[in-house]
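Subject: sequence -> structure tokens, single chain

Hey, anyone have a minute? Need the predicted structure for the following. Not urgent.
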Amino acid sequence: MGRNTRSVFDAIDAIKPYKGGNDFLWAMCRLNNIEKHRLLLTVGSQTAGMHMGQFLSNRLREQRHPSFAALADVIEPLDIALIPADKGFPLKEGFELYIGTVDEKPNPKQKFAFQVALNEPGIIEGKPLLETLHQFASLVEGIVAALRPRLG
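Reply:
Had a minute. Here:
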């Protein structure tokens, strides 16, 4: 084995492309193998949060005070989400997105966000699809950049 070949193997070993080493790279490899043998990867949906600008502005308007109404107009368009600890993955009928107070009136216009998430048991479970794809792309770019000088 030549000196350059050993350098490439050392660089690959440093990346730790196995479970217990670089688990994210291992997951990407496993998903790639599954994709070759099945038509689709398994995904599900989960909650990505509740639109807080809308929620808070609704609360301010309930107070029926002129200065609160003006503040509500400023707060409502803010793109702030309350992200729950339990995202309900995978979402099932009856999952409670929000539980208000006993006397709270329901807001039929309240907005909630949802996302598609990967679900391959034992490999990657409940990870947002788009975020994970961006992380995979960054990982591959970093590996290519690290190996480029050794490949001539």
